[in-house]
Amino acid sequence: QVQLVESGGGLVQAGGSVTLSCAVSGVTFSRYNMGWFRQAPGKEREFVAAITWRGGSTNYADSVKGRFTISRDMAKNTGYLQMNSLKAEDTAVYYCGADYAGSAYRPASSSGLDYEYWGQGTQVTVSS
């Protein structure tokens, strides 16, 4: 059974930092690119960041470039999203996704349609 479990969300003040984690089980972690998406109330889910399975290539939404960093720990089967300089507009439910890449290079996708598996989401609320 494939599971992606996000954690680390909560309430944080504007300008603060938080790190989200995504623990993956039930798949060969090293064969999947990982991505983070978010959905704010009344809005569609949007791309935040993605990383290739080797970790050598990343992709960020313009709105988070320079503030957020995506990474992964192969030994722990866990992905991370470090979020700094948080703004009120970063308030959303954050989801991690897994996109099968196999052993070949596959670009870190910004399209949610490319992700086969998703976590349940974790709420991040930034107070201004």
Structure description:
The structure is a single chain. By secondary structure, this protein is mainly beta. It is 0% helix and 49% strand. The chain has strands spanning 3-7, 10-13, 18-25, 32-39, 46-51, 58-60, 68-73, 78-83, 92-100, 117-118, 122-127. The strands form two sheets. Strands 2, 4, 5, 6, 9, 10 and 11 form a seven-stranded mixed sheet that branches. It has a four-stranded antiparallel sheet with strand order 1-3-8-7, with no helix packed on it. The protein starts with a strand and ends with a strand.
Compact description:
The chain is mainly β and 128 residues long.
Descriptive tags:
128 residues; mainly beta; 0% helix
Map the helices and strands.
Elements: E1 3-7, E2 10-13, E3 18-25, E4 32-39, E5 46-51, E6 58-60, E7 68-73, E8 78-83, E9 92-100, E10 117-118, E11 122-127
Q: What's the β-strand tally?
A: 11
- State the helix count: 0
End-to-end span in angstroms? Answer: 40 Å
Task: Give the H and E element order.
Answer: EEEEEEEEEEE
Largest pleated sheet = 7 strands, mixed
Low-confidence stretches: none
- What is the average per-residue confidence, as pLDDT, rounded to a whole number? 96
Radius of gyration: 14 Å
* DSSP helix fraction: under 10%
**What class would the helix/strand composition place it in?**
mainly beta
Proportion of beta-strand residues: over 45%
The 3D shape can be described as globular
